[in-house]
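Box 4.2: Ligand-aware structure prediction
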Amino acid sequence: MSYQALYRVWRPRSFNDVVGQTHITRTLQNAIMQEKFSHAYLFSGPRGTGKTSAAKIFAKTINCEKAPVLEPCNECSACLGIQDGSISDVIEIDAASNNGVEQIRDIRDKVKYAPSAVTYKVYIIDEVHMLSIGAFNALLKTLEEPPKHVIFILATTEPHKIPLTIISRCQRFDFKRISQVSMVERMQTIVGAENVAVTKEALEAVALAAEGGMRDALSLLDQAISYSDDQVELEDVLTVTGSVSQGLLTEITKALYQKDIQQALIKVDDLIQAGKDPGRFVFDLIYYLRDILLYKSAPQLENNLERAIMTDAFKELTEEVDAEWIQRAISELNQCQQEIRWTNSPKVFIEIAVLKIADQVSNTVNNEQNSVIDVLTRKLEHLEKELTSIKQNPPVVQGSGQPQQAAPKRSAARSKNSYKIPYERIRQVLSEASKQDLKNVQAIWANFMDALKKRNAPAHATVQNSKPSAASDKALVLAFKYEIHCSLALDHKQTIELLLAEMLGKELSIIPIPNNDWQELREEFIRKQKSQEDDEESKDSQQDDPLVAEARKLVGDELLEIRE
Ligand SMILES: [Zn+2]
């Protein structure tokens, strides 16, 4: 498929093409027909909502050779010249790149001269909020006494940054985010004309991801088209945008509302595993919940839904969940959104938010540390119980003391685990590990756990089901019964390491690993050692079995049951 960017090809050329802003385009058209237009306009609104397109269409319409007209003819030399930028009476200035006072002074000097090719000089200043104070003052002088043949159109995404003295001299139009329905309709027209097959679900997902900006929608659509093979499907769009499908949002919301923590955590894990952006997911979920709330309170506002598409499942969900619950969930997610900005492990905060929402904790506990600790501890205990039930029939028999063979099912299970095991780091620790280092840790472990519980109960809860399994001079490998605790423990890494250093008199960096993976890794390491030593000590066959010796060196006698 050879392609020219859709948003270029389909840039609006007449008022009728400007999607979702009829409240503005009609007013402008009426003013044009009655020749009662203002000399300064301020077009404000989110990016991609048609501000500069509308400005250019306005410039064409008032200068069209057939004026007064409702729409530019797009055929006369005035329309064509303005469209391609060859008529110097219509000037587009990007304030983001030309924010100097000089530029505006230049306008002030030339503004008094009559236009050369068309009736009106039109200055379109995009991102006008970027102008310097000096430039604003120069602009203000011009706006105070505008010549009759000059029109200013100021466009901005951030009107609050514009001096009131400027705003008060403009007729202001606020461009709205384009509604879901309007964007889909417009894209249907476009893909129809371009002869590209795109499913309705795919277009709906594009519109959702574009957040009301048509330009963004068309670039996303472009990407999805080049990404897909033939017909553009929902999945292609979700891949391109990193968004989460409404189906998944519905399932997660349901699980949260029904306090099915296990299910909610599995879903979160799945989507992060699938490469979805965690921040994007939280954002999507907030807006989805907002839509549920909106639809619950005012079903007639169906067109104002931001994230949700009206389906039976959505309607069912809005009937099921309770409004107060949604409000609290949104406030938890908001907090989570703040927190994940500053972390490298956003998943941990999402998991905590999941626990909080499913448990429906009021936000006020944030100010009361003790209750937070109680609550988190309770949740982690609850979580452990939930997880135990999944782990009842583990694919690998544990606790025999013998090195485990990797069962085929393990790899499938591991793909669900988003905690990335630092295999290389652990191998490094193993190569430097000593029995004495491990014994030193084991000797203080029980006291350490007691002290940790007193100092930081949530941190304690995360390592409760872990076991010091190998130690070097610098690091400690902790084998965890449950995978989920590996990432949760890392969240308390500093607390744990600090206390450990206090009690051990030495700093060790903790490295969590799920126990099953630890068993495999240990076995692999021992086998490698064995084969190396076999080469070196082929004569010394009277020695202790090198496999056992190595294992003993690593984990110490008491942890190693030797069979046969
Ligand atoms: Zn024309």
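In the box above, the bound molecule is zinc ion. The chain has four domains: 6-174, 180-241, 246-363, 417-564.
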